[in-house]
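so i finally got all the pieces together for this one. its two components total, 859 residues if u count the protein bits. some of the lines might not be protein, just check the labels. i wanna see the whole assembly predicted at once instead of chain by chain like last time, that was a mess tbh
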Amino acid sequence: MSKPLKQIHLAAHFPGVNNTTVWSDPKAGSHIEFSSFVHFAQTAERAKFDFLFLAEGLRLREQGGKIYDLDVVGRPDTFTVLAALAAVTEHLGLTGTINSTFNEPYEVARQFASLDHLSGGRSAWNVVTSWDAFTGENFRRGGFLPQDERYSRAKEFLATTNELFDSWHGDEIVADQASGTFLRDAKAGAFVHSGQHFDIQGQFNVPRSPQGRPVIFQAGDSDEGREFAASSADAIFSRYAQLKEGRAFYTDVKNRLAKYGRRHDELLILPAASFVLADTDAEAEVLAKEVRRQQVSGATAIKHLEFVWNRDLSSYDPEGPLPDIDPDLGDNHISKGRAQVRMYRDPLATAREWRELAAANNWSIRDLVIETGNRQNFIGSPETVARTINEYVQTDASDGFILVPHITPSGLDIFADKVVPLLQEQGVFRTEYEGPTLRHQLGLAHPDEAAGERVAS
Amino acid sequence: MSSTSPSHLHLAVALDGTGWHPASWREQVARPRDLFTAGYWADLVAEAERGLLDFVTFEDGLGLQSSHYGELDGRTDQVRGRLDAVLTASRIAPLTRHIGLVPTVIATHTEPFHLSKAIATLDYVSTGRAGLRVQISARPHEADHFGRRTLPPLSLEELRTPAGQERVADLFDEAADYVEVVRRLWDSWEDDAEIRDVATGRFVDRDKLHYIDFEGAHFSVKGPSITPRPPQGQPLVTSLAHQTVPYRLVARQADIGYVTPHDADEARAIVAEIRAEQEAAGRADELVHVFGDLVVFLDDVQAAAEDRRARLDALAGEPYESDARIFAGTPAQLADLLQELAAEGLTGFRLRPAVLGHDLPAITGGLVPELQRRGAFRTAYEADTLRGLLGLARPANRYAAA
């Protein structure tokens, strides 16, 4: 009882290009038109959310050698949308997923420093790596990076951008019209970086931004990814939104902080989480089932089965039984451009297990994909969902959640209207923004402050 | 072809720091401490929009500004540092309704795939008002910021020699490939590719998404873009050109070329050269604008403009020199000059205000009314898109079946 309540952090993930985004619903709007982003961002800001989150993908997905056409396809450029959203919001953080493989540090540092200036200190970077030659076909540098080098390149990339952000200290611009001194120091922005992946030098041309550096997110889950986050990130975009797995992940990652001389509260754990709300818990359960059926059409069910079978299953009836033939254990040649397929490490066992499940429950292919697919994380009345989220946070399954609605762009509205007020009543979620920058909302110190000192909140 | 009156001039303003004169930041009106805030740029673009201008351009560069072409100058008495131009333009887009937004992009060190979707997205957030100004960088110190190629030192004098032109010709070839990739990616989605067909469960008609399969000397790009075809179909491509090699880039790939004639004869000769290159490129029947670039000091009386120029030159410690002609005078005199040059075939002008805080309001409040009185400039925005303002039709998609 003596332990003070943790304050919950909430963020809004713009619905992405997975089948979890329901485009067939009459309420579903454009995921490209700027008006959708404005609605989504302004809803999040009205609800006093910490930030908006954008994912990224740099090549359209393919399955069976053809562009995958069953899910939402396409998205705008991350940086450009975030800069425009800075004009229609005042406090909301703007988090962009930007790949460190198909970019150069100087350019990415310029873009984040510029976004931070243009938003008055609200930028954040979800640093991801990709190494596939498939995506690399869209870029100068090509794609290939051996897997064992991807974290070393990502680490060096981030370290290099930090050197660029720190190459200006914030006091260089004098702009004294009378004396004619614009810059205090002719060497402002000077940097030299000589490493395994980058050998660059010169002068950075964007002065120190309000937050010093963007807030850094990390999304990887491997041991290396967790170390990377513990050493260098401000927050983790995690996949563990369930109570037990969430607590295990939370404990594991927070325990890694000490060896880097960092405190528990210097790294936030923010899992992605979906939700379905209705007036009562029972109604929400019914609705959640309906949404899952919308998310998995018959055609989608067949395609998901192909991830495991690694074969063309288009001749199968989604309302019929599972295939008798076994998965093809050769190289993946069915699906390209998504991470999901690597999750099935033993396709034969998965196929056997699914056939047994389907037989026992009399499930069709589509039923099976729906039933074995991810259930929404929070299902219930506003009271139930608010209570559950608070319990998860107070018991250290997370520090908050990055909510992923299934409808663009209005899917967040009900959460903002019904759940946020309850969390505010319980005193676990802000009723006013805590300061101008994203670091203020997240309770993170400005990089210029001495370690241990906190931003006043 | 053009929906606008043929006697109408097109006017753009080039935004750079506090203005094009290196001492401009020292003027009372200059706001040098606001340079790195969104509000500064929003105010400038709002002023340009009040003047019904076609568009603004945003200068950019991948290194600190310098008074020398090929190297840093170590000076501390001029504006140094800048924000990314594409992001600045995007930040302003939701705050404006009619004016075009044309950021500079450097083709030499950046990824055409990223840039294509960035400009497509700028077109979405501005609902059809985006363009780009493509630029090369031959500067060795900027290449060092990327560490992927080494460029030998190059001075402005060398740049003007045949050998210097040979060197930049390769960079311009790369820029031409870059624009080709950017344009193909814009077309890589047909306009009606998104079908949302609930019956078949298909979100897109993948037969209307196209690989661009570009292979060139500097890069190959597969496509399609991750961003659907932008509202204008093809946002505007523009380029500044001083010589034959860049004129060729304009003629082959651009919708607008900015050129720097110092008198009517030069204007005539440049326009003729670009038109000939345009014909050679098989684009004779396409509308390619040729805009004259001018640095302007504008005041109600000529002496005031000249005095201001002299005062700023004195503050800078040397006379300001430019690739473009420097004009100092009244709005009526400038209107005379613009009409004289337009008679030689220029279809518009990109004005570079010497001091943005002074000369931009002088353009919108002095030059524009003067041109309107002469029936030479619009009195209201008459189109919803930048292409529309410039009399350019929305182009057919190169990949769509006829």
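The first strand of chain A starts at residue 9 and ends at 13.
DSSP finds 14 helices and 17 strands in chain A.
anyway lmk what u think
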